Structures are given as C-alpha cells and as structure tokens.
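Technical note accompanying the year-one report. For the benefit of new consortium partners, we illustrate the data format agreed upon in the data management plan: each record pairs a sequence with a structure-token string. No post-processing was applied to the example shown here.
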Amino acid sequence: MELKFKALNPMIGREIPLPQFATPGSAAMDLRACIDRPVTIRAGERTVVPTGLAMALPSADYVALLFARSGLGIRKGVCLSNGVGVIDSDYRGEIGVGLVNLSQEAYTVQPGDRIAQLMVVPVERPTVSLVEDLDDTSRGSGGFGSTGR
C-alpha cells in the first residue's frame, strides 16, 4: 500500500521528517509537531498541535487512527484529547493532533517532537439490521466489572 502525504508546511522534509515507523516491528508511524516555536500545555489544558501534513488514504477500505504515544501518556500525562483520532478516507485537510495534559505540571511540546502515532487499518462496513433477539453468550448482558477483577 502507498500512503500519500502532502506537505502543508515548508518545514516538512527538511526540519521535520515524514511519518515513519520507529522500529521494524512498529505497528504505527510517529507523527511530529510542525510548529515554529514551543507550545506549552498547562495542567488540565487542551490544544491542537498541527502536523503540517495532509494525506490520502487509498480508498474507503481504510481508516487512519491516531493514538497517544505511550511514553507521553504514562510519563508525562499528555494524551489525545479525544481518546483515539479517526481520519476518514475522504478527509484531505491538515492532520491536527488534539492533546490534553492530564498531569499537574505544564508540558512543553518542542518543534519536531513526536506527539502521536498513526496506524492505517482496514475498515469493515457492515449492514445494519434490527432484530428481536440476540444470540446468547455466557456473559449475557453483564456490564462493567461483570467478568471479575
């Protein structure tokens, strides 16, 4: 599969590399902050950090998902503000990364910092139907915490 990116900022390809896999076993590519100067996110604050990139997924058979970088989330408390970002196949605008600082301390994003992970996955588009009954399972309708600790 070829994933096409368009540079929306002249820093892309010079100071800021294209998204890339950090290791041969990486499932997602790192996205970087395409900013001219540092951006500080105060405790509890949310912001959108631009990547300077737009992309074209090959077809509606794919979606791009944005995930938090585990090091930022676990060590610094900086996560995606919407949990998981969904980039639909027909979106052609700039990829922005919504970040939230859940820690008690300010966090500063530097130009070129890796701020999120981008994963491309296949999409299954099921037909939807309304039924009278669902098949039984051992869990049934047991909700939160019903499978134990």
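Partners are asked to follow this layout when depositing records. The mean pLDDT is 95.
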